[in-house]
From TrEMBL:
GO MF annotation list: 3-deoxy-7-phosphoheptulonate synthase activity
Biological pathway: Metabolic intermediate biosynthesis; chorismate biosynthesis; chorismate from D-erythrose 4-phosphate and phosphoenolpyruvate: step 1/7
Upper lineage: Bacteria, Pseudomonadati, Thermodesulfobacteriota, Desulfobacteria, Desulfobacterales
Cofactor(s) essential for the protein: Mn(2+); Co(2+); Cd(2+)
Keywords: Amino-acid biosynthesis, Aromatic amino acid biosynthesis, Cadmium, Cobalt, Manganese, Transferase
This protein's name: Phospho-2-dehydro-3-deoxyheptonate aldolase
GO biological process, one term: amino acid biosynthetic process
Family: Belongs to the class-II DAHP synthase family.
Chain residues that bind phosphoenolpyruvate: R111, E270, R271, K293, R324
Length: 449
C-alpha cells in the first residue's frame, strides 16, 4: 500500500486498504450507480458546512455545545414525516434544555438523512444453522435474514440518496418554516412524555421561556426575528461507503476546496480509523467537519497521528473526537489523551458517545444498554475534563423520538422483560424520547455556568 500523504484526490483512497466495504457483486452496476450519483445535485451546500464548522470552533473553547444524535441505522421503511418530526422534536427539546442551562448555543447535528451504512464486527451471521452475510445498512442490503436479502445491491445507494434528499427537505421546512420557533417550545413535548416527570420538568422550563419572550414583546423588543423563529439543524453520518462519499464530493465554487456534500459532518468509525487506511485518506481531503470515534483500545500515538493527518493546520471546528470508552474504561484512557492533547495545543471538540462501549446482551437476548451506565460514562466524561482543565464539548447519542423499549432503566425504569414490547431498532438500541430528555436534564446540571 502507498505511504500516506501522497497527493490527495477524491479517489486517492483507492490506493489504501478500505475496510468494511460491501462485496458488490457486479462492478458494472456499481460503476453506473456511482456515475449517476456524481451527476445528482449535492444534498448540502458548502456554505452550510462552513457555518457548522464555525459553530464547532466555539465548542472547542466551551462557547457552544454539540448535540449529535439519531438512529444507529436509519431504516428506509421508516423514513416518513412522523418519524422525522418526532426525532427533530426531541432534539429541539434537548437543545432548549441545554441552551437554557448552559447559556451557550447548542449545535444540533442529527444522525439523519444518510445514516444508512453500518460497519459490522463479523462479515456473516448464523441464522438457523445457515451462515449468511451480515446486514450492512439499508444502503447496502436488507435486514431480511436470507442469502438473497443480504446480497449487496448498489441501487440501494441511489435510493438512500433520494431518501436523504426528502428527509433534508422536510428538516429544512420544519426548522425554517416556523415549526422550530421558540414560541412553540411547549408544543414539542411528545404526548407520551408530557405526563411523565421529565415531561413536567420540560413544561416548566417551556413556560419560563414563554414568559421571557412575552416580556421582550411587552417592552417592545422585536420577537419576530429569525433568532426566535428559525433554527439551524445539521446532518451527519458515518462516512463508510467510500464510493458513495466520493460521488457526493464536489468542488466548491467559492473556495475552490472539495466538500463531501452528502452531509454537513461526517465521522470515521471505530473500525475504520486506521492511520494508513482508506477512510482516513478520503476524509483528510474534504473540508467538512470530521468526527473520529475513539474506543478503549486506541493507542495514544495513533490518535496523535490521526489528528495531525486530518487537521494539519490545527483548524478549530475541523475535528471532533468522539470518545466511546465505556463506563469502566473511560477513567484509564481519557485522562492521558486529554493531557497529551493539551500539551500539544490541539484544537479539538471533545464529544462523549456513552452508547457504544456500554452495550450488552440482556437475558431476554436483546442487545441493550442500561440508562445508568450511559449516565455514568457521561458524568465521568465531564468530571475528567474538569479535573484536566479541558473542555467537554459535546454529546453523541443513539436515540429516537419514538416510544421504544430498547435501553433499560430511566425514569420509567424499563426492565429487561419489557424490551420485547417495542424493540424496533434495525441495529443498536436507542434511548427513547423520554430517556433522551432525561439525559438532557442530567447534562444541563453539568453544563450550568
Ligand atoms: C455507530 O456510531 O453506530 C458505530 C458503529 O460506532 P463505533 O464506530 O463507535 O463503533
Ligand atoms: Mn450504533
Amino acid at each position: 500500500m502507498a505511504a500516506i500523504q501522497t497527493e490527495w484526490t477524491k479517489s486517492s483512497w483507492k490506493n489504501y486498504t478500505a475496510l468494511q466495504q460491501p462485496k458488490w457483486p457486479d462492478q458494472q452496476k456499481l460503476d453506473k450507480v456511482l456515475a449517476d450519483l456524481a451527476e445528482l445535485p449535492p444534498l448540502v451546500f458548502a456554505g452550510e458546512i462552513r457555518t457548522l464548522k464555525e459553530g464547532l470552533a466555539k465548542a472547542v473553547t466551551g462557547d457552544a455545545f454539540l448535540l449529535q444524535g439519531g438512529d444507529c441505522s436509519e431504516d428506509f421503511s421508516k423514513v416518513n414525516a412522523t418519524n422525522i418530526r418526532e426525532t427533530l422534536k426531541v432534539l429541539l427539546q434537548m437543545a432548549v434544555v441545554l441552551t437554557y442551562a448552559g447559556e451557550k448555543p447548542v449545535i444540533k447535528v442529527g444522525r439523519i438523512a444518510g445514516q444508512f451504512a453500518k460497519p459490522r464486527s463479523s462479515d456473516t451471521e448464523n441464522v438457523d444453522g445457515v451462515e449468511i452475510a451480515s446486514y450492512r445498512g439499508d444502503m447496502v442490503n436488507t435486514l431480511e435474514p436470507t442469502k438473497e436479502g443480504r446480497k449487496p445491491n448498489p441501487k440501494l445507494m441511489l435510493k438512500g440518496y433520494y431518501l436523504a434528499a426528502s428527509t433534508l427537505n422536510l428538516l429544512r421546512a420544519f426548522t425554517r418554516g416556523g415549526y422550530a420557533a421558540l414560541t412553540r417550545v411547549q408544543a414539542w413535548n411528545h404526548e407520551f412524555v408530557a405526563q411523565s416527570p421529565m415531561g413536567r420538568s420540560y413544561d416548566r422550563l417551556a413556560r419560563q421561556i414563554d414568559q421571557a419572550i412575552n416580556f421582550m414583546n411587552t417592552i417592545g423588543v422585536p420577537t419576530d426575528t429569525p433568532q426566535l423563529n428559525q433554527t439551524q439543524f445539521f446532518t451527519s453520518h458515518e462516512a463508510l461507503l467510500l464510493g458513495y462519499e466520493e460521488a457526493m464530493t464536489r468542488v466548491d465554487s467559492t473556495s475552490g476546496g472539495c466538500y463531501d456534500c452528502s452531509a454537513h459532518m461526517l465521522w470515521i468509525g471505530e473500525r475504520t480509523r486506521q492511520v494508513d487506511g482508506a477512510h482516513v485518506e478520503f476524509l483528510r481531503g474534504v473540508l467538512n467537519p470530521i468526527g473520529i470515534k475513539i474506543g478503549p483500545t486506541s493507542k495514544l500515538d495513533d490518535v496523535k497521528r490521526l489528528i495531525e493527518i486530518l487537521n494539519p493546520d490545527n483548524e478549530a471546528g475541523r475535528l471532533t473526537l468522539i470518545t466511546r470508552f465505556g463506563k469502566n474504561n473511560i477513567e484509564t484512557v481519557l485522562p492521558a489523551l486529554l493531557r497529551e492533547s493539551k500539551k500539544e495545543g490541539f484544537n479539538i471538540v471533545w464529544s462523549c458517545d456513552p452508547m457504544h462501549a456500554n452495550t450488552y446482551t440482556a437475558e431476554s437476548g436483546h442487545k441493550t444498554r442500561n440508562y445508568n451506565d450511559i449516565l455514568s460514562e457521561i458524568s465521568r466524561f465531564f468530571e475528567i475534563h474538569w479535573a484536566e482543565g479541558t473542555i467537554p464539548g459535546g454529546i453523541h447519542l443513539e436515540m429516537t423520538g419514538d416510544n421504544v423499549t430498547e435501553c433499560i432503566g430511566g425514569a420509567r425504569n424499563i426492565a429487561d422483560a419489557e424490551l420485547h414490547r417495542r424493540y424496533n431498532t434495525s441495529c443498536d438500541p436507542r434511548l427513547n424520547a423520554e430517556q433522551s430528555l432525561e439525559v438532557a436534564f442530567q447534562i444541563a446540571d453539568m453544563i450550568k455556568r
